[in-house]
């Protein structure tokens, strides 16, 4: 596989294994969106609304990635190319290390990021409260887009990665890959909340997910010091 694809594969994998974290952050939201929905006992209807929620969430992640990728270009534009590459890779590597420790439960420093981001969510939440429960798929999409701005250490860590991606398009693509990785877990949580919750909270699964992401972090640092 060309090295160009590695950041996107990493982002997708982080989203996929990050399901161990999604339970704690998003489980309550998913439950509220699912069980307040009229006709939620019908699997087909429930799936369509869950998909609309998640498409809205993915849209927000992608837009935020574009913004952060563009910001990264501005921040490193005055540095020599090699130095800029090293700075971006070191930033990405350290972020991955912290994220891996967070996912495993070994060090929860990223919770402070979520607490700081709560200010943003408190501004958004009153504007969408009236859409619950959604009466159509468009309203479900809007709710999902608002959900995408929920303070989350996992998402914010990937947005730091987007700063390191090299541009707005690259940042959007990185966050899209990450969001697609989160999609199976969050759809599963929406459809089978209880069973999925018990599985994802298994200690060995959390530890394995964290170690995998830590490995990505060490790989990024190795690349930074071997340019």
3D architecture notes:
The structure is a single chain. By secondary structure, the protein is mostly helical. It has one domain. The chain contains ten helices and no strands. It has helices at 6-17, 19-35, 43-76, 81-104, 111-128, 137-147, 153-163, 168-191, 193-200, 203-224. Helix 4 (81-104) runs antiparallel to helix 7. The chain is globular.
Q: What is the element layout, followed by pairings?
A:
Layout: H1 6-17, H2 19-35, H3 43-76, H4 81-104, H5 111-128, H6 137-147, H7 153-163, H8 168-191, H9 193-200, H10 203-224
Helix pairs in contact: 1-8, 1-10, 2-8, 3-6, 3-7, 3-8, 4-7, 4-10, 7-8, 8-9
Entry summary:
The protein has 227 residues and is an all-alpha fold. The chain has helices spanning 6-17, 19-35, 43-76, 81-104, 111-128, 137-147, 153-163, 168-191, 193-200, 203-224.
């Amino acid at each position: 596989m060309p090295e160009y694809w590695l950041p996107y594969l990493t982002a997708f994998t982080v989203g996929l294994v990050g399901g161990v974290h999604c339970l704690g952050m998003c489980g309550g939201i998913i439950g509220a969106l699912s069980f307040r929905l009229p006709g939620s006992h019908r699997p087909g209807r429930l799936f369509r609304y869950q998909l609309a929620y998640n498409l809205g969430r993915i849209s927000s992640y992608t837009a935020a990635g574009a913004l952060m990728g563009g910001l990264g270009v501005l921040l490193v534009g005055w540095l020599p190319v090699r130095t800029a590459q090293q700075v971006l890779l070191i930033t990405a590597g350290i972020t991955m290390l912290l994220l891996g420790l967070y996912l495993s439960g070994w060090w929860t420093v990223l919770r402070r990021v979520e607490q700081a981001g709560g200010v943003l969510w408190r501004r958004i939440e009153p504007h969408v409260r009236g859409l619950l429960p959604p009466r159509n798929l468009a309203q479900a999409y809007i709710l999902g887009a608002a959900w995408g701005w929920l303070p989350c250490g996992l998402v914010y860590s990937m947005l730091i990665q987007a700063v390191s991606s090299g541009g707005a398009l690259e940042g959007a693509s990185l966050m899209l890959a990450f969001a697609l990785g989160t999609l199976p877990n969050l759809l599963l949580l929406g459809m089978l909340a209880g069973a999925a919750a018990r599985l994802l909270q298994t200690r060995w699964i959390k530890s394995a997910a964290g170690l995998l992401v830590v490995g990505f972090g060490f790989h990024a640092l190795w690349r930074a010091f071997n340019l």
